[in-house]
Amino acid sequence: MAIQKDRVRFNVGGKIFETTATTLAIAGRDSYFSAMFDDNWDLQPNPASEYFIDRNPDCFAILLDLLRTGELYVPPNVPEKLLYREALFYGLADHVRSAKWGRFDGNRLHLLKSITGRAPGDGTAIRGSPEGGCCVAHGSMVHIYDWMLEEHPPINLDYQRVNDAGWVGPVDPTGLVISTCERLGRGQGGMGLFNSKTGELRYKFSVTHENVVKSYTAGALCFNDGYSLFSSCKGRSNEYGIGVWDQNTGQQVDFFYEPPGWSLGDADKLQWLNGSNCLLVATLFPRKDNCYISLLDFRSKSMVWSWSDMWSPANSDDRRVRDAIAMEENGSICVVNEFEDLGFMDLRRDSGSVRWSSRSRIMKGKMPDEPCYPKLALHEGQLFSSMNDCISVFCGSDWVLTSRLKRSFGGSICDFSIGGDRLFALHSEENVFDVWETPPPSIV
Q1: Which residues contact 441 (CB under 8 A, 6 or more apart)?
Q2: What pLDDT does 376 receive?
Q3: Crossing angle for the helix pair 57-69 and 93-100, nearest 10 degrees?
Q4: Is 313's pLDDT higher than 60?
Q5: Measured between alpha carbons, how far is 84 from 200 in angstroms, rounded to an integer?
Q6: What's the whole-model pTM score?
Q7: pLDDT 10s digits, 264-311
């Protein structure tokens, strides 16, 4: 009798299915089926003998099998786009994504596909979303792709060049912040929060200096877990520094002004450090002739750590650092130069020297005539560095080179990003971006 009570019968588009409450419970509280259960995951009474759902029965069969086995098999006669649409209806999109690709591992990535942009060159940035989609900044346009890699209507910033973009995160999956250059004479520029699906501008982030709203250029972006948004800012008066806003309301809550002899407003990279509650700010060559890397504590309005190459010899490896990233677990900052040499600085020593790792050098000779500068990323204990048309993966306490990702089409990689357990790499010449993902684990 207990088995009979656990059995559930569906009529989907005229086709009968039978399953168990145990299988349906795997779908979770955010699914279509959660309303069938009480707070203790016991089935609610149903006066009818079956549940009728006016949807596609072929897709339902696939999704039900996914709940039963954890595996996703899509027959050739079922378009994947149709299946994804049905998965969204049932609240099973996360289950489909988990079955299609596995937990991110830089050493097991394989190329899913390469997507060609609508115009060659001039790509600014690519940012992976938490759901496995991405956005591509191209001049004054931002092209949006969902996790199915279907393109949504682009966001047009009316000839304001895009400097950076950032996804708000799980609290607002459709929220996308875009930073742009100021348009002289028009009082425009700065940042805005957009709906990535519709392109609608929700609100702008203003900078106030001496109780007056100022026009400004917004640069690098960063978020923290406390729903704060950080951006490097350049204004016409004294609005050079790092601004802070409440991402839920759009209101400015703080501003760290650039100290004399240093550079914050031109920053290329911002990174929030949860352990120390500080912000990494890096202004790098060639935006400036010298490199400036610092940690800012907004609580005390102080620069608690800093480094610059302005005192280094002209022929030193310290000169012309291209990117930087903080590694809190190791208490260090990693930097990369134009030859993809990795250097490390101890955060426990103020203005310490760079310890360069020669084993990381994999490029011979000089950069190409039109280079894309190396970029760094850190994800779950793995370090990634782009150089020309490939991305290198480093692992272990000594950061040993363990694998490389490379495609010959599209030219050098000008930017890459990790999001939603995928890696996205944007090429410079053809505005092509590659999508890399980890195969799902085998189910024995």
Answers
A1: 102
A2: 96
A3: 60
A4: yes
A5: 24
A6: 0.88
A7: 999 999 999 999 999 999 998 877 788 999 999 999 999 999 999 887
The proportion of the chain whose per-residue pLDDT surpasses 70, expressed as a percent, equals 90
Please choose, from the candidates 184, 175, 226, 174, the residue with its C-alpha nearest in 3D space to the C-alpha of residue 205: 175
Which uninterrupted H or E stretch holds 232?
Answer: strand 228-235
Query: Tokens 């997507």 — which residue?
Result: 115
Q: Mean pLDDT for the chain?
A: 87
Q: Residue 119 half-sphere exposure, CB side, CA atoms within 13 Å?
A: 11
Q: Is residue 112 pLDDT above 50, yes or no?
A: yes
Per-residue confidence (pLDDT) for residue 444, from 0 to 100: 53
Residue 145 and residue 118: Cα distance in Å, rounded? 13
Residues 143 and 121 sit within 8 Å (Cβ to Cβ): no
371, exposed or middle or buried, with CB in 10 Å at 0-12, 13-18, 19+?
middle
What SS3 class is residue 34?
Answer: helix
C-alpha distances in Å from residue 225, one per residue of 6, 30, 167, 246, 282: 41, 23, 13, 11, 21
The bridge status of strand 207-209 relative to strand 7-12 is unpaired
Strand locations in 260-399 (E) = 269-273, 278-283, 292-297, 302-308, 323-327, 332-336, 342-346, 355-357, 376-379, 382-387, 390-395
